[in-house]
């Protein structure tokens, strides 16, 4: 009988719920009017030979074919390659990251260290899965009969928490992470409101139980948190070993009005500049911000714009939405309140 590579989704979610959670006081117990949960087809488990089918509400990041969901860290095309249905790290090519950004989520990702054992300790089958655009890592390592430091082994939150147990299979075999990620929260001034938390299973075995991260994970030292957006790309590490990945999917937790993306830096740079209409008071200025956002000064307000697509951006503190139209002779920005762009204000770039 083949051993399933199981997401164990029900147990994952149960363990990830905070102890302080309480029933919604707006509803009585067993209230027949209370909305029922949405129906999700759970898909199928993987086997060592065959990847499973993701849940019906998952965002599929890699299905064994194309890599359009991934890019180099600056948003340019990645040099990682697809071989035999797996996404393989090309040593020396650099980290890769998703174009889409995620906050609280359930991540399923399967990986395999090279079957041919080379090196030892941290030099053997090393990679990593990162949340927060490279800030927070759960270690990927060939830890089967491979001694290394505890907080650098497979299943560890790097340089912070060792795995509860070593549940790795031999090199060359597929391993599976199922992770519940809770992103850190910051207030408007950048003060930490709540730290990041992680619950993780490796091959169906609990290796991190609601661990509270002390800040970003780094090789040396434990730096404090620095404010950043709640939703950021997931990344995978090039550590010089041809580690392979397959069946990568994510389920966002919570309600979001729009998807978010961190676009290529070269594209974001094209939007920077002054926009306006001749003789009109309503001018706008677009500038770059960290982590793939744009700053937009308009009507006396400073807004942060988040990308919902390569040309469509929106603010979160007010219902302002923006689309860039560079298809014609003049480069234009359409600004509206709400979803209706048919009545949008049109600003032209370079107009005083």
TrEMBL record:
Pfam families: 3keto-disac_hyd (PF06439). The keyword Cytoplasm does not apply. Residues 58-251 form the 3-keto-alpha-glucoside-1,2-lyase/3-keto-2-hydroxy-glucal hydratase domain. Coiled coil: none annotated. InterPro entries: AL/BT2_dom (IPR010496). One of its GO terms (molecular function) is hydrolase activity. Residues 1-21 form the signal peptide. Keywords: Signal. This is 3-keto-alpha-glucoside-1,2-lyase/3-keto-2-hydroxy-glucal hydratase domain-containing protein.
């Amino acid at each position: 009988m083949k051993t399933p590579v199981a997401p164990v989704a029900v147990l994952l979610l149960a363990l990830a719920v905070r102890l302080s959670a309480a029933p919604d006081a707006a509803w009585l117990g067993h209230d027949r009017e209370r909305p029922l949960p949405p129906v999700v087809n759970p898909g199928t488990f993987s086997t060592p030979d065959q990847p499973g089918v993701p849940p019906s509400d998952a965002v599929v990041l890699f299905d064994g074919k194309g890599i359009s969901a991934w890019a180099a860290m600056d948003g340019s095309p990645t040099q990682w390659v697809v071989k035999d249905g797996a996404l393989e790290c090309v040593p020396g090519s650099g980290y890769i990251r998703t174009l889409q950004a995620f906050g609280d989520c359930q991540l399923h990702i399967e990986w395999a260290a090279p079957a041919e054992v080379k090196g030892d300790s941290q030099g053997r089958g090393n990679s990593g899965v990162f949340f927060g655009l490279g800030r927070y890592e759960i270690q990927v390592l060939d830890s089967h009969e491979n001694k290394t430091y505890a907080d650098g082994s497979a299943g560890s939150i790097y340089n912070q928490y060792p795995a509860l147990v070593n549940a790795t299979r031999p090199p060359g075999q597929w391993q599976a992470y199922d992770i519940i990620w809770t992103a850190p929260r910051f207030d408007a001034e950048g003060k930490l409101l709540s730290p990041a938390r992680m619950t993780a299973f490796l091959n169906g075995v609990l290796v991190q139980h609601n661990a509270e991260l002390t800040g970003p994970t780094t090789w040396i030292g434990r730096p404090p948190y620095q404010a950043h957006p709640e939703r950021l790309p997931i990344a995978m590490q090039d550590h010089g070993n041809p580690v392979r990945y397959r069946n990568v999917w994510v389920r966002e937790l919570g309600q979001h009005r729009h998807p978010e993306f961190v676009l290529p830096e070269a594209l974001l740079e094209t939007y920077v500049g002054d926009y306006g209409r001749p003789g009109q008071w309503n001018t706008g200025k677009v500038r770059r911000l960290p982590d793939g956002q744009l700053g937009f000064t308009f009507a006396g307000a400073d807004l942060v714009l988040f990308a919902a697509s390569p040309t469509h951006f929106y603010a979160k503190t007010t219902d302002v939405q923006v689309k860039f139209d560079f298809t014609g002779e003049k480069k234009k920005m359409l600004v509206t309140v709400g979803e209706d762009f048919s009545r949008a204000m049109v600003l032209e770039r370079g107009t005083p």
